[in-house]
From TrEMBL:
This is Vesicle transport through interaction with t-SNAREs homolog 1A isoform X5. GO terms for cellular component: cytosol; endoplasmic reticulum membrane; ER to Golgi transport vesicle membrane; Golgi apparatus; late endosome membrane; SNARE complex. It is found in: Endomembrane system. Its main location: membrane. Pfam families: V-SNARE (PF05008). It is a single-pass type IV membrane protein. GO terms for biological process: Golgi to vacuole transport; intra-Golgi vesicle-mediated transport; intracellular protein transport; macroautophagy; retrograde transport, endosome to Golgi; vesicle fusion with Golgi apparatus. Residues 1-91 form the Vesicle transport v-SNARE N-terminal domain. It comes from the Eukaryota.
């Protein structure tokens, strides 16, 4: 039974090595080639999940006294699988960032220049927010005056004899 498990381990090792190599290529590709690679990696990740399931089934069949070693290996494989999925997600995001920067005309400015630009934008937003708040207070004050004036006029009409 452990020979089946070891065979699955070898298959898992080969598959995860292939996935790792392909994940590294994702950010560098464009268009259909990128879509095809992503689909391929997703398919391989599914295969790896299925292998893990098979391995878990094998571990359940192992006598309890020998199961500890295999269980710890399974935890390690599951962690590796989680890391692969996270790396794959990051590689797709990295690609998105590159395309976004290219579309927005970001020519690779230094992070210091980007930080300065962000601070200037933040200051501009704060100034605009303060202006909006002042305008809102003026509008509220004007509305309050209008309400009081309307109330005063109604009071005058009730008290006067026409």
């Amino acid at each position: 039974m452990s020979s089946d498990f070891e065979g699955y381990e070898q298959d898992f090792a080969v598959l995860t090595a292939e996935i790792t190599g392909r994940i590294g290529k994702v950010p560098k590709l464009l268009g259909d080639e990128k879509k095809q690679l992503i689909a391929n990696v997703e398919k391989q990740l599914e295969e790896a999940r299925e292998l893990l399931e098979q391995m878990e089934l094998e571990v359940r069949e192992i006598p309890p006294q020998s199961r500890g070693m295999y269980s710890s290996r399974m935890r390690s494989y599951k962690q590796e699988m989680g890391k692969l999925e996270a790396d794959f997600k990051r590689s797709r995001i990295a690609y998105s960032d590159e395309v976004r920067n290219e579309l927005l005309g970001d020519d690779g400015n230094s992070s210091e220049n980007q930080l300065i630009k962000l601070r200037e934008e933040r200051a501009h937003l704060l100034d605009n927010t303060e202006r909006l708040e002042r305008s809102s207070r003026r509008l509220e004050a004007g509305y309050q005056i209008a309400v009081e004036t309307a109330h005063f006029i109604k009071t005058l009409h009730k008290s006067s004899i026409f």
